[in-house]
Specification:
Elements (H helix, E strand, L loop, with lengths): L1 E3 L20 H9 L3 E4 L7 E6 L2 E6 L16 E3 L5 H7 L3 E11 L16 H5 L1 H15 L5 E5 L3 H9 L2 E12 L3 H14 L2 E8 L2 E5 L15 E7 L1 H4 L6 H12 L3 H11 L14
Parallel strand pairs: 4-5
Antiparallel strand pairs: 1-2, 2-3, 3-4, 5-8, 6-7, 6-8, 9-10, 9-11
């Protein structure tokens, strides 16, 4: 996607409603403060516009205009978008967690809180401090001719209770998605794991202690049976990424694991190395 300065953006009224409570308020904040960034799929007549501010992203437009890799820059963000974008978002990131949000709009002013007459201890004042702060903030917002709104998670019961007490009432619910790392990085790690294959390790007993030996493919995967080897372990980095091994690699790995002979070690090393490469003789010969 292309990063555009705000003065080069098309008219945003059709993309983000002006004055609407909820997530669209982020765009007004970004325009007023120049704190955010704007992304489009193309400069002329964009089909997708993304507003990014802090860790939040508003995504609007046609999801078919984007490929999963186009969203990689929004990794580890909170993305708010219509349900049409969900298949694209799930493909673009390795982790997607939907979170339900609720928008409240203030319908009535909350009563002014005062401590009981004759009470001088700070306890009652602290008890109503949050409500007094909300009232003061709402007064400032109303003085600027804006309507106060309150957004919180649907599971945030204390926040919803405070909003209700302050005169806010539920208006809409929406979903945003907390995303992880780009899926392309996971795929690249998987390809690297396939090239290196299953990494054999040997647990060697020396002087009554046990240590692990043999990790990368350049190490010796048990050149031949030895009285120092009492246990064989196959460590698969591909397994951590839930990769599927080719049947050939699985076969030579299993054969070596059952009985590590020089010939089987050579076959395992050839399967683990890149095509056309030959393992060094000192890694498998006696």
């Amino acid at each position: 996607m292309i990063n555009l300065p705000s003065h080069r953006l098309p008219a945003l009224a059709g993309w983000f409603p002006t004055g609407a409570p909820g997530p669209s308020a982020l765009t007004e904040h970004a325009l007023a403060t120049q704190a955010g960034r704007w992304w489009v799929d193309r400069v002329v007549q964009p089909r997708v516009i993304a507003a990014e501010c802090g860790h939040h992203v508003l995504l609007r437009g046609d999801p078919q205009a984007l490929a999963p890799k186009d969203l990689a820059r929004f990794a580890d963000r909170h993305i708010e978008a219509s349900g049409r974008f969900l298949p694209l978002i799930r493909t673009a990131f390795d982790h997607v967690s939907p979170r339900q949000r609720m928008v409240h709009v203030r319908r009535s002013a909350a009563p002014v809180t005062r401590p009981p007459r004759g009470v001088t201890v700070p306890g009652p004042r602290i008890r109503y401090l949050a409500l007094d702060c909300v009232n003061a903030l709402c007064s400032d917002i109303a003085a600027r001719r804006h309507t106060p709104s309150w957004t919180c998670s649907t599971t945030n019961r204390p926040g919803r209770l405070l909003a209700w007490t302050a005169g806010f009432r539920p208006k809409i619910e929406y979903t945003h998605y907390v995303v992880g790392a780009p899926a392309a990085k996971r795929a690249a790690a998987g390809r690297a794991a396939i090239l290196t294959g299953w990494t054999p390790s040997t647990a060697v007993r020396r002087a009554g202690s046990t240590s692990a030996a043999g990790a990368p493919t350049s190490s010796t995967p048990g050149r031949c049976p030895s009285p120092l080897i009492y246990r064989l372990v196959l460590v698969s980095p591909g397994g951590l990424g839930r990769l599927r091994l080719a049947p050939g690699l699985l076969a030579v790995s299993a054969a070596w694991f059952i009985r590590p002979t020089p010939a089987r070690s050579a076959r395992l090393l050839r399967a683990m190395l890149a095509p056309g490469s030959r393992p060094r003789a000192d890694l498998w010969s006696e």
